[in-house]
Amino acid sequence: MSDPETTPGTAAHQKIDTSVPHSARIWNYWLGGKDNYPVDEEAGDAYTGVFPGIVTIARSSRAFLRRNITYLVSEAGIRQFLDIGTGLPTADNTHEVAQRIAPESRIVYVDNDPMILAHARALLYSTPEGATAYVDSDVLDPERVLAAAAATLDFSRPTALILSNILGHIADHDEARSIVKRLMDALPSGSYLSINDGSRGFDPGFEQAQDGYNKSGAVPYNLRTVEEITSFFDGLELLEPGVVSVTRWRPDADASDAPIIAEHGGLARKP
Q1: Are the C-beta atoms of residues 101 and 183 closer than 8 Å to each other?
Q2: Which GO biological process annotations does it have (predicted)?
């Protein structure tokens, strides 16, 4: 196993604030991870007290990502991944799924949280044949992300862009669409875009809990309609079944009757 590369940036100089809940650490808590603090557990428990279904959403989101990556490696032949908004390492991280199938896969993770940076070197190990790298940067600066990722990825070859539960942190929908476009414009034909985000219009309990969370002092996360999520794929070829509840995107054989939840996503190819 080879060590991951880490590109230092703003997070390297930040102190981890354990007095304010952080979305990545709360998500880690809901996924059953241990990389969180009491303030995150309290915020997570307060959220589940209003909407217990958030744990299902978190774990269904991770399962959706696993199925996406499995398709991309096994059927689409993708060997390069740019995963922005990585979050804290848990189970079935992008490189683990990809390199189990194709050890030569190369993955760049991007996040701007100091706790995630601290864990990157310790936990994001690569196979000897492939590579993992960590870029300390912000999705709001796509050109910097791409420049740093180019040290590990060859952008003349098809690459999968992974945006899992990150675009909700960009309040302005037009700005979010612009960022997605700028990132995809830098990737060649045959590349893919995978997006999943919390959706509005399906579960009032989820929306109430999220609105409360956004007022808690944590970084807000904005739910979007399915139509808004679908618009991120404009100009690309959406794979069947399109943008759907993550539980209904090519489900495993034992989960074909999974309920629709307020988390939607899709996978599309750049023509």
Answers
A1: no
A2: methylation
